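pinned: reference chain
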Amino acid sequence: MTAGEQLPPRQVSLLLCDHEGRRLGSLPPFEVEVPWWPEVEPVVAGARAQFGIEVTVLRLVTAPVAERAAGGPVTYLAEVAKPLPLPLAPWPADASDPLLDHPLRLPFARPGGPGRDLAWADLRLRAAGQDRAGPAVQVKTWNLSSVWRLPTAAGPAWLKVVPPFFGHEGAMLARLDPAVVPPLIAAEGPRVLLADVPGEDHWDGPLPVLLRVLGMLVGLQRDWVDRVHELAEVGAPDWRAGPFVPAVTDLVARTAGELDDDTVAALQALLAGLPDRFAAVASCGVPDTLVHGDFHPGNTRGSVEGRSVLLDWGDCGIGNPLLDQAAFLSSIGEAKREPVRAAWADLWRDAVPGSDPDRAAALLAPVGALRQALIYRVFLDGIEPAERVYHASDPGTWLRRAAQLS
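pinned: its structure tokens
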């Protein structure tokens, strides 16, 4: 999204069911100013304000094909817990029934699923001496996460539930240095319960804050060089040469029909040279370790003068730590990029004297784009068809980028 760009609002339609999955009817469409499809807190608030009912959004049913998952007419399946005080229209006739189950449907996208997640969170809060002090607030739901804000006397707690391909996040949070991640109250399988982190996300953070969180990441990665086996044990993806080369070779073969001939030819040449490229990266001396996987300023949070933490570890894996550089640099203002890049290189030269992090980062540029394409393919393979609209074009987009960088 470019500066000053205005995205259209959402026109939301809700298909209602009860917690046992019985269809109830539909509400008239209403407008939500926040355009982003996964952000459902304003959808819940809109249903309350306009129709006097409480809903829990389960999942996206229909949405337009769009460059971004934002704006336009969208339909969600939503659950209600109490009898409704208003007449409902029947569900629109459609070839597909949103209540027909799918083997890839996530538990939190099924009727009754959010209630079970909240019951788990309440038990864990009680065990920690922090009973919930008010209604839970549904913040986000989509194929990558379900997020709830839970008020307590000590401040809000956050419930996050993820799909299986992010299922190692809770195990990782339990292993990472608590000084640099959100306070973990409890974790079990796909569920994590976190204490609040005061402050704000560092999207527009000043340079000293960006350098602070960079130092936190590199320090963490230095500490994990000898703990890579733990990443494998919790099921984190492996982006080292051995597993990576066959995985992206298969990906290019699967996606070739979406790409022009010149792009396919460039990718084939890139694939052929990957073993030598990985060997050249290794010769630069920066060791494989923990990769955050989605390191950008919006995944760091805190205050300018105080503490910051690193958020969202579901994307983490094993590989060269400089794979984290491209996403961060592309997310900050141009004037900050060179100081951050230079600091990044200095941190690794200090960690590994004689290493060449600048050359490693340059060699990894097309590898990073291939990794992004592979990640989005994993998403698409792990989510049901109705939700693939979020990511359908992303593998091809990142493969084109890899070809350009090769």
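why pinned: The chain has twelve helices and 15 strands. The mean pLDDT is 94.
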